[in-house]
Amino acid sequence: MSKFFKKITIIKPDDWHVHLRENTMLSKVINYTGIFYERAIIMPNLENPIINCKQSINYRKQILQAQSNHVKFQPLMTCYLTDFTKSKELEIGFNKKIFIAAKLYPKNSTTNSQIGIKNINNIYSILEIMEKIGMPLLIHGEETDHNIDIYDREAKFLETTLEPIQKKFPSLKIVLEHITTKESVDYVIERNSPYLAATITPHHLILNRNHMFENGINPYLYCLPILKRKIHQTALRNAISSGNKSFFLGSDTAPHYYKNKINITGCAGIFNAPSSLLIYATVFEEMQALQHFQSFCSENGPKFYNLPINEKTITLIRKPHKIIDQIKIGKNTIIPFLAGQILNWSIDI
Ligand code: NCD
Ligand code: ZN
């Protein structure tokens, strides 16, 4: 049926997981989010992470200054949790709307997570306060014990960490971010709780781990959590096309310079801001589930965060759109996800 759609108009979406970085990189990537999204949750894992209100206020200012007038979006800031986070700081930050949520990075789980949480028990007093004040906890859900196979780290995390947190803090709002496995999909569906939601990235919807090794190794597809087997990709695609309200959009757009991606120890992260919404549209269409596209992109997220749904709309038209080849930043370059490839949907501007 969907092949007859020439246009899709939906409420303007929000991206609930975005890495903008700082300085020149920030100024070069920011509009790609602004073109498509009305609000974006900004990840705090800078080289010098955002761990208090003062840093967050300054970072937000930097973001607002970097925005162009015609592509403004609202940045929603997050606090990076460490073993030293003070509950007062979080509470004040949340009440004053400096922070919308706090982010849990298990120590050494991903980019700039060296000062993340070593042991979840260390922050139980923080979680208690967050539950009390209704502040959402955003989780990078991977076990970091290096004896655990990298492909099993997310599933293991559900058992060792998420389950105990949920038992102890049943009304703590949790977003299990960028889920990549059938186990996580099943967990969220079975819970069926207003306190638990999950975001899903465009790249985990269109790729599986085979793609990383097609015609040689593809460092551009390296991200964390790492791409999984096809059965997991299928579970994610089924989750979004079921219309289940516990799943919503979080692109995890994560720019890195070419020199840092193509490196002997290349960085994890995929810069998908130029294509994310167009990819989601493609997947919903392939799954014949365009009737659930708007709720995934624009309704389920605000509902979870108790925010109003956006008033503006966005229209995608069926017209070939080529993703830019590269973004030059001085002597450096960022190669976006699907660089140079043609997608079926374009934004109508
Ligand atoms: C992200 C980054 O580069 O900041 N990388 C990634 O592979 N997703 C961090 C993260 O969200 O894990
Ligand atoms: Zn991320």
Key traits:
349 residues; alpha/beta; eight-stranded parallel β-sheet; globular; TIM Barrel; three-stranded antiparallel β-sheet
Q: How is the topology of this model organized?
A:
Blueprint: E1 7-11, E2 15-18, H1 23-36, E3 39-42, H2 53-66, E4 74-80, H3 87-95, E5 101-104, H4 124-133, E6 137-139, H5 153-168, E7 174-176, H6 182-191, E8 196-200, H7 202-206, H8 230-241, E9 247-249, H9 258-261, H10 276-286, H11 293-305, E10 313-322, E11 327-329, E12 332-334, E13 342-347
Parallel strand pairs: 2-3, 3-4, 4-5, 5-6, 6-7, 7-8, 8-9
Antiparallel strand pairs: 1-10, 10-13, 11-12
The structure holds N-carbamoyl-L-aspartate and zinc ion.
N-carbamoyl-L-aspartate (NCD) binds next to loops.
The 3D shape can be described as globular
Bound molecules: N-carbamoyl-L-aspartate, zinc ion
Biggest sheet details = 8 strands, parallel
The strand order across the widest sheet is 2-3-4-5-6-7-8-9
**What fraction of residues sit in β-strands?**
15-25%
CATH superfamily membership: Metal-dependent hydrolases
Task: Quickly count the helices.
Answer: 11
CATH first level: which class?
A: Alpha Beta
> Poorly predicted ranges (pLDDT <50, ≥5 residues)?
none
**The CATH topology:** TIM Barrel
Report the order of strands and helices.
EEHEHEHEHEHEHEHHEHHHEEEE
Mean pLDDT: 97
Radius of gyration (Å): 19 Å
